[in-house]
Amino acid sequence: MHASYQKLAKFYDAMHQRRDYDKESSFVIKRIKEINPKARSIIDVGCGTGTHLQKFSSHFETLAGVDLNKEILGVAKLKFPSAIYQCAPMKDFRFDQKFDSIVSLYSVFNYNLTLDEAEATLKNMHAHLNNDGVLVLALYVAKNLERKISIHVGKDESLESAKIMIMSMIQNQN
Ligand SMILES: C[S@@+](CC[C@H](N)C(=O)[O-])C[C@H]1O[C@@H](n2cnc3c(N)ncnc32)[C@H](O)[C@@H]1O
């Protein structure tokens, strides 16, 4: 997983240009503020190229992004330099402050491949949340165990790209 996102870093935004990040971000902000209207700080775990952080910025004072991949974080830092970034696996990131909310979007939590890893990640997230903190996980839920193939194509002024994903469930793993 790490290696493939390293190669994808410079193509990621082009391949996801059809996503409605405004809509996704508004949905998430609305949920957080409904539960904790005073929420002022947020971590995006698996922040990728930082697009959600950028969209969250007018609603939060302190923004942090965690990602395993330093190349993809490099894109995020250029695009949205105002966040605090940390290159770490989601089960191990460490900040010396707690936050009002943590989000992990676009199935990032599914990259925990064992129950032990998932538990360690949830404990780490919990340790970084203030009382009344809100956790939002957007999960990929497989409807069946069949193989799924999807193709993402992207194009901007300087590049054209295509990513072919083949997903399948492995017994007892995510
Ligand atoms: C599908 S992208 C999602 C990026 C962003 N959240 C979005 O919605 O566009 C998955 C991201 O998760 C990161 N990632 C994968 N495994 C991770 C892990 N164990 N800990 C932290 N980040 C991870 C990848 O480097 C990549 O940036």
Describe this protein's structure.
- The protein has helices at 2-8, 12-15, 21-35, 51-56, 70-79, 115-127, and strands at residues 41-45, 62-67, 84-87, 99-104, 129-137, 148-155, 160-167.
- The chain is globular and about 45 Å long.
- It contains 6 helices and 7 strands, in the order αααβαβαββαβββ.
- It has 174 residues and is of the alpha/beta class.
- The strands form 2 sheets. A 5-stranded parallel sheet has the order 3-2-1-4-5. A two-stranded antiparallel sheet has the order 6-7.
- The model has no long low-confidence stretch (mean pLDDT 88).
- The two termini are 13 Å apart.
- The chain has one domain (2-137): Vaccinia Virus protein VP39 (Rossmann fold, 3-Layer(aba) Sandwich), CATH 3.40.50.150.
- Helix 6 (115-127) links the parallel strand 4 (99-104) and strand 5.
- Bound molecules: S-adenosylmethionine (SAM).
Q: What separation lies between the terminal Cα atoms?
A: 13 Å
What is the spatial order of strands in the main beta sheet? Answer: 3-2-1-4-5
Mean pLDDT comes to 88
Shape: globular
What count of helical segments does DSSP give?
A: 6
Radius of gyration: 16 Å
CATH topology: Rossmann fold
**Share of helix among residues?**
25-40%
Structural class comes to alpha/beta
CATH class category: Alpha Beta
Largest sheet: 5 strands, parallel
**What is the strand content?**
25-35%
Kindly summarize this structure in a few lines.
The chain has 174 residues and is α/β, with parallel strands linked by helices.
Question: What attributes characterize this protein structure?
Answer:
five-stranded parallel sheet, 174 residues, alpha/beta, binds S-adenosylmethionine, two-stranded antiparallel ribbon, 26% strand, Rossmann fold
